[in-house]
């Protein structure tokens, strides 16, 4: 359970500009594939396509051997945990944001997930910009804290497949280590596709895909890629 396959995927947001030009890779259940490459190469686009925010023009994306066009949107999204780089929070408490998609979770489960993601101390807080009858109030969360809300949500959701976009922004070392620990925890034993910016992720990945200008320029384990140089 939890295999992902991209089969000769072609995609363009605008018909006159091809973004992905024939991408093929397979992630076996429980394995990790890291996607690296320069900005604009199409890495985030791959994550959006897996979640079916857009439909591809050619090729196929399969989850557990099934074309995602034949899977109901809810079951597809229930199977995938998405931790984007820029998490957009709902206009409600952190606890609500963590619980999203798992409304049956108990308060203790929400609290536990929050603690694992290092945000246990402020789950009743409201994000900055929260609008209420008494005007604007709320807690200003950093990018890293918002990402931890997404991690807590994913810990609670416990999906078979994980789609992670590691932060590029210069988080302070302590925060970065805490986020890394939470990400390691949530990806253990799950099929993971990670847009990797950290060397540690790349080293431990079962396969690294180097994306350049919408094509796979190189692929292999960290050792393989070093040997080729
Ligand atoms: P990466 O994650 O590797 O930096 P992206 O997948 O975000 O790359 O983007 C690949 C290309 O697609 C970029 O040139 C980007 O400008 C373009 N792009 C991304 N999103 C959209 C969109 N919604 N509409 C049109 N072009 C887009
Ligand atoms: P539901 O399955 O409850 O209808 P959605 O399909 O909206 O929920 O989203 C399921 C999961 O996808 C949620 O965990 C949410 O974090 C994530 N998600 C939804 N929209 C986006 C988005 N635009 N970017 C990144 N993640 C998203």
From TrEMBL:
Lineage of the organism: Bacteria, Pseudomonadati, Pseudomonadota, Alphaproteobacteria, Hyphomicrobiales
Keywords, in A-Z order: ATP-binding, Membrane, Nucleotide-binding, Transmembrane, Transmembrane helix
The name this protein goes by in its record: ATP-binding cassette, subfamily B
Family: Belongs to the ABC transporter superfamily.
Organism: Neomesorhizobium albiziae
Residues covered by the ABC transporter domain: 4-229
Keyword Transmembrane among UniProt keywords: yes
GO molecular function: ABC-type transporter activity; ATP binding; ATP hydrolysis activity
Residues of the full protein shown: 359 to 587 of 627
Compartments (UniProt record): Cell membrane
GO CC annotation: plasma membrane
